[in-house]
Specification:
This is L,D-TPase catalytic domain-containing protein. Helix content is 24%, strand content 13%. With 595 residues, the chain is an alpha+beta fold. The protein is globular.
């Protein structure tokens, strides 16, 4: 190499001789650093020769050390294959390397940060080989390619490297990546300008596609199978092009002036030697098998394990005395675990079980529901309480009491509620007497709109609500109080209203004589005030309420007839559903950041 660079320098024009000399000197420095395999140079690990065992295997399979290579990766099986061209011209499998770790789920990489390792066809050039990697040695896969970019996929620096740790990469042991790196280096020295990497979710067999038939990536994987079939049929890496946002293999445009463009429609093209028909036959077989799969078991769409690890490394984590292809770092994070395990002692049985499981259930990150608006049906409401004793005057007379927070011991049954105190006069009823009128739920006509409520009470509306009693703590939740029972109003006769309520005497003295008498009601019915939509006050409806009236007059504390949106007890859920506890839903998990 050094002598050829010097010859090139002598053949150049005189004005460019100094550039050739500088290039030759740089090459000499690099070669000097590479020659010492075990020296202090940082390039020594990248220039180490292939082992005698690998050289013997090459000779046995009829492969030259510098012949071209193809790399094939299978996620689900956690295997990386190196294929090499033989002396006959076809490609044959040289070695299969177990992958120590890969991250994400089966499926392509879509965006930066999704922890997905790429799937597809990629090209590695000498410039993508990194001898100074933080993970011993590495080579960049070249993601995103033209197909990925046509779909708007993002991400960078997706590698095959050492150190058995992955954030979107395919991680090997240091010894493994050193040999793969050396095979690629030798192929470049033999004249190969780039080598192809075929990254698959699994071995592209019909049975595997049927097993993963429920995965949303099935159409993408069937397209990758076309490239895999071309490789198997021709025993050579396929020529890969992109058009119509898809892959095309070994295709030639019918019009030589046209070109394949990933984001443009595909031109008419041909494939040699009946290759297209052979690929179509295999695709039809897959479709037929999937259509007839029926209730056959299928693989989970997501495992929640964040990638995989070959079983040989899992066995070594379980028993460090076993041998493995290469050394492991001091701490390794097995699939399915959210913590690392030491590699110099047996890993916990739980970690091994999670790594070997088909799927790992994880708690979903379900946010708590947002609070309901105060005017929404079923939302938390406040019960109107008695006004302060000091309130009075004209507006105090017309206004209704403002809602006030009742003490913790004030939420007893309505049958023991004392009579309310008004601004004009205060009259108390025995603690055991039933409430004279249904307790109203505060809405827009209470609080700052008390004037409207006062007018309603003045012209014959419902009497003032009773204050909450000061005994027996409530069992209902604080944020959704259970409304008290609503006893029906006293039945009126033709002679006028009955003066049975001591609480309404002082408030309605002037209006009782002028109020028209209610028409007589049937003995089996009574006028039951019924709350409607908050903000529209109380309305009355006639309903058969004989039993309800009897319970209300005797102070019965049976479960009241409530609106469908209000729970009758603390254990009953609103709208017939169980209350969400927060984050107890178990679903298959997902993943987070990527390198």
């Amino acid at each position: 190499m050094f002598s050829s660079l010097l010859r090139q320098g002598r053949n150049r024009r005189p004005g460019t001789g100094w550039r050739a000399a500088l290039l030759a000197g740089s090459a000499a420095l690099i070669l000097a650093g590479c020659n010492a395999n075990d020296g202090p140079s940082p390039m020594s690990k990248a220039s180490r020769t292939l082992s005698p065992q690998t050289l013997a295997l090459l000779q046995e399979k009829g492969m030259a050390k510098t012949s071209p290579i193809v790399v094939r990766i299978f996620k689900e099986e956690s295997e990386l294959e190196v294929w090499k061209q033989t002396t006959s011209g076809g490609y044959a499998l040289l070695k299969t390397y177990p992958i120590c770790r890969w991250s994400g789920e089966l499926g392509p990489k879509v965006k930066e940060g999704d922890r997905q390792a790429p799937e597809g066809f990629y090209t590695v050039t000498p410039g993508q080989m990194n001898p100074n990697s933080q993970y011993y040695l590495s080579f960049d896969l070249g993601y995103p390619n033209a197909f990925d970019r046509s779909l708007g996929r993002t991400g960078a620096n997706l590698m095959v490297h050492g150190d058995c740790t992955s954030r979107g990469c395919y991680a090997m042991t240091d010894e493994q990546v050193q040999e793969v790196f050396a095979l690629g280096r030798e192929s470049f020295m033999g004249g190969q300008r780039s080598f192809q990497v075929q990254a698959y979710p699994f071995r592209m067999t019909t049975a595997n596609l049927v097993r993963h038939r429920n995965n949303p990536n099935l159409a993408f994987w069937k397209m990758l199978k076309e490239g895999s079939d071309v490789f198997e049929l021709t025993k050579a890496p396929p020529k890969v092009d992109f058009c119509g946002k898809r892959y095309v293999f070994n295709a030639t445009p019918a019009d030589p002036s046209q070109r394949f463009q990933a984001a443009a429609a595909c031109p008419e093209y041909t494939q040699p030697g009946g290759l297209g028909e052979a690929i179509a036959t295999r695709q039809r077989e897959v479709s037929t098998r999937i259509a007839s799969a029926g209730a056959q078991p299928s693989a989970p769409v997501k495992t929640g394990k964040d990638g995989g690890m070959h079983k040989v490394f899992l066995a070594k984590l379980e028993n460090p005395e076993l041998s493995a292809p290469g050394s492991l770092p001091a701490v390794v994070k097995p699939p399915g675990s959210d913590y690392g395990v030491a590699t110099n002692e047996p890993a916990p049985a739980e970690s091994i079980a999670l790594a070997n499981a088909d799927a790992v259930p994880q708690a979903a990150n379900v946010p708590l529901p947002t609070p309901r608006p105060t005017d929404a049906p079923g939302a938390a409401t406040q019960v109107a309480a008695a006004p302060p004793a000091a309130s009075g005057g004209l507006f105090g007379f017309f206004s209704s009491p403002s809602p006030a927070a009742a003490p913790a011991s004030a939420a007893a049954s309505p049958g023991t509620a004392p009579a309310a105190t008004t601004g004009a006069a205060a009259t108390s009823a025995p603690a055991s007497a039933p409430a004279p009128a249904p307790t109203r739920v505060a809405s827009v006509d209470s609080g700052s709109m008390g004037f409207l409520s006062g007018l309603k009470n003045w012209f014959g509306g419902s009497p003032e609500p009773a204050p909450a009693p000061a005994t027996e703590a409530a069992a209902a939740p604080a944020d959704v109080p259970v409304p008290p029972a609503k006893p029906s109003a006293q039945r009126q006769t033709a002679g006028g209203p009955q003066a049975s309520s001591a609480t309404s005497t002082s408030r309605r003295t002037n209006s009782a004589s002028s109020a028209p008498a209610a028409p007589p009601q049937a003995a089996s019915t009574s006028v039951v005030p019924r709350p409607t939509h908050p903000g529209y006050g109380d309305t009355s409806s006639t309903a058969a309420a004989t039993s309800t009236t009897a319970q209300a007059q005797t102070g019965s504390t049976g479960a009241p007839a409530l609106r469908p949106s209000v729970a009758a007890s603390s254990s009953e859920a609103l709208y017939g559903t169980q209350a969400l506890p927060g984050a107890n839903i178990l679903t298959p998990g997902s993943f987070s950041s990527v390198q």
